[in-house]
């Protein structure tokens, strides 16, 4: 107990945490076919002496992580992965010049590809988090070409993250959408998860990690709940900066 609080204390003194997590309530638009989110008072301080809520949601609600078993039948489930899989050095790419439903090709990654080492998390800042409350525009996000995922895996990237609902194209929704418009092929999901990697979706605030100097390293933490047999979990995604090659912020 004492040791744990000491570690947290030292950590907090050493770095500022940046919250990369979207707030979730019943109004936010979920993927077509996904179960809706609800959080209802089940016990209350007034009536029962304590407050408890009943939660009901998809395992992919809000800012969340996809385990390999989300697309791969015998892939690892979220509870099988060690905590170290979720705390990684990150490279944050600014692709906020991309327009609605524009493809992000390898050209956008190539200039910084030499900074992707085995175990790096690659995060795509599209700026789409600003459309979080917009039930149609949020679906019209830029998406990754399948070969970007293949090349990232080849370089050893273990996790990709995006401030959109998916690294793949999402279906068109809303009144003007035709049946099957932009039906996703999930090529990026299959490649990353098929390689045993992880995907984080619905991130926000990635712009606050841009423009760090070469001496600064971004560390991202996306620890999930340890739900047995589950294909994903909501996360509280955070990041902090530390000096490259500098000492660990944790007490050992
Ligand atoms: C976030 O992304 C996922 C895609 O996995 C989607 O199912 C979910 O509904 C999204 N949005 C919200 C508000 O949870
Ligand atoms: Zn997901």
TrEMBL record:
The protein's matches in SUPFAM superfamilies, at most eight in alphabetical order, are given as: Putative cyclase
Q: Which domain of life is it from?
A: Eukaryota
The answer, when asked if ATP-binding is one of the entry's keywords, is no
- Extent of the signal sequence: 1-23
Alphabetized UniProt keyword annotations: Signal
Q: Which InterPro entries does UniProt cross-reference here?
A: KFase/CYL (IPR007325), KFase_sf (IPR037175)
Q: Name one GO molecular function term.
A: arylformamidase activity
A GO BP term, please?
L-tryptophan catabolic process to kynurenine
Question: What family classification does the UniProt entry report for this protein?
Answer: Belongs to the Cyclase 1 superfamily.
Name of this chain's protein: Cyclase
Q: Which organism is it from?
A: Lactarius akahatsu
